[in-house]
Amino acid sequence: MNSSEEQNDSIAAGAELLLKGWKMLNKACPECVEPLYENDGKVVCVKCKKEYILVDSKSELPHSKTSVAKDSPSSVSPNDFSSFDFSSLPPTLSDTAKIMLVKITDLNAKLEETSDPKEIAEISSSIKSLIDSLRSLTS
User: Fold this and answer.
1) Long-range contacts of 23-28 (CB under 8 A, 24+ apart)
2) Pairing of β 68-70 and β 50-55
3) Which one, of 43, 49, 91, 96, lies nearest residue 70 by Cα?
4) More confident residue, 35 or 55
5) Cα dihedral angle (116, 21, 102, 51), rounded to 10 degrees?
6) Count of domains in the chain?
7) Contact (Cβ atoms closer than 8 angstroms) between residue 27 and residue 36
8) Is 103 buried (19+), middle (13-18) or exposed (0-12) by CB count in 10 A?
9) Per residue, what are the HEC states of 12-53?
10) What is the pLDDT of residue 92?
């Protein structure tokens, strides 16, 4: 399966969850940088097919080997994405990647607030573009 087919599958899976009442979070999967979805306390990534537990600090981490995504407030700084490893990138590109993650978080918050289909489409397109750009930086 090629990259655009995988992306379309992720978008379709996310849309299906939204139609079932799930909420798209303003947090990204630490593995693939796709948006995370939540329903009744369950947080999942539709692409990786993994379940996550959101925490505010390391002291709240469970003692199991469950994957964990950092829960952070709406105003996110680039340093809040410590679960992502950008160490292989030059410093400038690492900063760019962190900024892209912040922008994705900001757009997710806007997406959560709107019900206008046109605005949803525009925001979703922007998120997809940022995710594609982020993938090109890290691949």
Assistant:
1) 23/112, 24/108, 24/111, 24/112, 25/108, 26/74, 26/76, 26/105, 26/106, 26/108, 26/109, 26/112, 27/54, 27/69, 27/70, 27/71, 27/72, 27/105, 27/108, 28/69, 28/81, 28/101, 28/104, 28/105
2) parallel
3) 43
4) 35
5) -160
6) 1
7) yes
8) middle
9) HHHHHHHHCCCEEEEEECCCCCCEEEEECCEEEECCCCEEEE
10) 82
Give the tens place of pLDDT for each residue, 100-120.
888 888 888 888 888 888 888
Please determine, for residue 71, whether its predicted confidence score (pLDDT) is greater than 50: no
Range of the domain at 129: 3-138
- Single pTM value for the model: 0.44
Amino acid identity for residue 123 in this structure: I
Q: Which residues pair with 24 in a beta bridge?
A: 37
**Token duo for residue 22:** 């799930």
Radius of gyration of the chain (CA): 15
| Longest Cα–Cα distance in the chain | 44
